[in-house]
Write a structure and sequence with these properties.
The structure is a homodimer. By secondary structure, the first copy, chain A, is mostly helical. Chain A has a single domain (about 25-160), classed as Multidrug-efflux Transporter Regulator, Chain: A, Domain 2 (Orthogonal Bundle). Chain A has 5 helices and 2 strands; from the N terminus they run ααββααα. Chain A has helices at about 25-30, 35-45, 65-75, 85-105, 110-160; strands at about 50-55, 60. A two-stranded antiparallel sheet of chain A has the order 1-2. In chain A, a hairpin with a 5-residue loop joins strand 1 (about 50-55) and strand 2. The longest helix of chain A has about 55 residues, at about 110-160. The relative contact order of chain A is 0.07. The interface of A and B includes residues 78, 116, 144 and 162 of A. The structure holds a DNA duplex.
Chain lengths: ~170, ~170
DNA sequence: CATAAGCTTACCGTTTACGTCAAGGTTAAG
DNA sequence: CTTAACCTTGACGTAAACGGTAAGCTTATG
């Protein structure tokens, strides 16, 4: 066995984690359910950039990184996005993050408003995509549910036709 | 130019189409937006079986076939299903169709009820898949909308800080 | 009936999204 | 300090989902 704990290992249960202990690729893999290969691949595509590296050049992931991985999984599995699309989606996120940063440094109220506008525009684009998907799915669901209710109707008709149901 | 109209071409606009004119692969391709290659590929995978063939062994598609193609597109684009998953999904549809057929021929009310049960079970499985996807998407949407409302709040704060807005 | 436009099967090429070694450096434990 | 267990970067392999091309048959028109 090797590689016990990489950074400041917080005794389990103390609840305090001022700066969370960075994770190895193996740990991230087991927590996210992805393989190590996949994590490296996502990095290669620019979807993910682990927070740091160890002295020996090992990848080190923060909790934020893990959250990003989860986000990627969501986009991939829920939306069926290609990794290229996810990349674009996440880049919008990143730009929002940069805007947030600029926002905090900006003192001029008008400038801050403009930044909010830009940020909202990015969010709206993402929302549109999602709502489109939802609408399609709801339509599909409706058609299936309609079938179920038709069957329910049929069923009551048939039950009335049945002579009796003793036993 | 060649291949004008394959079957009984209905004068446009009469509205009557007792049995619709079968379509060539080219026509199906242009109507569905898929390529001919893709249509053949889907057939190869067992997703699609054109209603018939011409004397010269040309594929002939019915309107039902076109509807099936649209269904496949929906499942692929909306649900992000793999073609293998779509195949399973459609097989459930097909089994339902067979059950419908059996249902019409069955006279015993009890037997018909049992068939309805089986059919409903198939539908429920499909519904579960869809609702799972919808739930995930709605959560994603909610988080984005929350951001928008936070921004709206911020915006009103900033507007109050602005001294004036003449011009 | 010749001929161009369309269709057929068959086969090879490509992109995406990884899996799978291979060769070699790193780290914790004995 | 050796060694087993991880890690690193290549490099090659592969399944899915088509794209493209070739060789040959079909069909509507001049």
């Amino acid at each position: 066995m090797a590689m016990a704990d990489v950074a400041c290992s917080d005794q389990a249960g103390t609840g305090r984690r001022r700066f969370s202990p960075l994770l190895t690729i193996e740990q991230v893999a087991s927590r996210t359910g992805l393989t190590k290969r996949t994590l490296r691949y996502y990095e290669e595509l620019g979807l993910l950039r682990p927070t740091g590296r160890s002295d020996g050049n090992y990848r080190l992931y923060s909790e934020d990184d893990v959250a990003r991985v989860e986000r990627i999984k969501e986009l991939r599995d829920l939306l069926g996005f290609s990794l290229a699309e996810i990349r674009a989606f996440l880049e919008a996120d990143d730009e929002r993050e940069q805007l947030r940063e600029a926002f905090r440094q900006e003192s001029d109220a008008e400038a801050r408003l403009a930044q909010l506008e830009r940020c909202d525009a990015l969010i709206q684009r993402q929302l549109q995509l999602i709502e489109q998907k939802i609408a399609g799915l709801e339509q599909l669901r409706a058609s299936l549910q309609a079938r179920l209710t038709r069957h329910a109707q049929r069923r009551t008709e048939l039950l009335q036709q049945l002579p009796s149901l003793d036993q």
